[in-house]
Amino acid sequence: MTSRSAAHVEDTRHALITAARALFATEGFQATLTEEIVRNAGLTRGALYHHFRDKEDLFYAVFEEVADEVEQSLVHRSAGPNPTNAWELFQANSEVHLDAATKNAAYRQIVLIDGPAVLGWEAWSARRGGPLAKIAEYLRDAEREGALEPLPAEAMAHLLGAIGTGAVMYVAQADDHVRARRDIEVCNERLFLGLVSHRGAAPSPPRPSSPKKSDPKKRHTTKQGGH
User: Fold this and answer.
1) Dist. CA 82–CA 70, nearest whole Å
2) pLDDT tens digits, residue range 165-218?
3) Can you count the helices (H) and strands (E) in the chain?
4) Is residue 81 within 8 Å of residue 47, measured between CB atoms?
5) Are 107 and 22 in contact (CB under 8 A)?
6) Which among 74, 82, 99 is positioned nearest to 167, based on CA atoms?
7) Read out DSSP for 44-69?
8) pLDDT tens digits, one per residue of 94-118
C-alpha cells in the first residue's frame, strides 16, 4: 500500500469516527442511523462497511477514542506535581472520572450511558474501570506508606470499584450533573474517612473535666457538723 493510499484509508476511518462520535454523543447509539453517519462524513455505506463490521463495531472505535482521552488525564506518579501518597493518587484519579461525567457530554453519553448496553456489562466494566488489580495495588502501597489502615486489598478493591462505578453513573444520569457531583463528593468524604490511617497522628487533647456538683446530702451533713 502506498503512503497516499494509507493516508486515504486513515482519513476515511477518521471521518467516520468523527461523524459517528458527534451523533452518538447527541442522539445516543440507538437513535443514530448509519445513513446519518455516512452522510455527515461525506462517504458511502460501502466505505463504512469496508472499515467496520457494523454500527456496534464503529461504536466501539468511538468508545475507545473517548475513553482514551479521559484516561490520558489520569494522574501518574512520574509526571508533574503529584499527590503525596498512593491513596491521594487513587482519589485524584477518581476525581478525573467524576469531572468527565460532570462536564464531558461525549464521555457521559457514549462511555457511561450507552457503553454498558452496547458492549455488555462485563466488557464495559473491564474497559472503563480498569483492572481491579490496579486498585488493589494503590491500596497496598497506601497501607505501606501509612496512609490507610490495614485492609484485605482485593476485597476493598472490589468495593471501591463498585463505588466508583456507581458514582459516575449517578452523575451521568442526573438531571443536574453539577449538583449530583457535589452530593457524591460529600458521600465519598464520609465513606473514605473510615479508611484513613490515624497512625502517628497527634493525640487528641484531653477534654476539660466539668466541675463536680456538690452532694446536697454532704452539704447538709457539714452544716450539721458545724453547729
Assistant:
1) 18
2) 999 999 999 999 999 999 999 999 998 888 887 654 434 444 445 454 445 444
3) 12, 0
4) no
5) no
6) 99
7) -HHHHHHH-SSHHHHHHHHHHHHHHH
8) 999 999 999 999 999 999 999 999 9
